[in-house]
Amino acid sequence: MEYKFSQKLREKIIAYFLRKHQVELTQELADEYLDSMADLYSAFSQINVKE
């Protein structure tokens, strides 16, 4: 599988979820979470541009 985000970034989010929420993410799920966060960021940044 080809990932959208770097190995280092996926490792960071995996470590974060394990530390803060005691949830172990797979590499695939970490990539999906990062993609969702990127979409959310994009949506909020477009709102700020309109204002």
Can you walk me through this structure?
- The radius of gyration is 13 Å and the shape is globular.
- 76% of the residues lie in helices and 0% in strands.
- The longest helix is centred in the C-terminal third of the chain and has 24 residues, at 27-50.
- Helix 1 crosses helix 2.
- With 51 residues, it is an all-alpha fold.
- The mean pLDDT is 92.
- The protein has two helices and no strands.
Describe the structure using short key phrases.
single chain, mainly alpha, 0% strand, globular
List the helices and strands and how they pair.
Elements lengths: L6 H15 L5 H24 L1
Helix pairs in contact: 1-2
Which of globular, elongated, flat, extended, rod-shaped describes the shape? globular
Based on secondary structure, the structural category is mainly alpha
Main beta-sheet strand count, sense and barrel state: none
Measured distance between first and last alpha carbons: 39 Å
Strand content range: under 5%
Q: Can you give me a brief rundown of this structure?
A:
With 51 residues, the protein is mainly α.
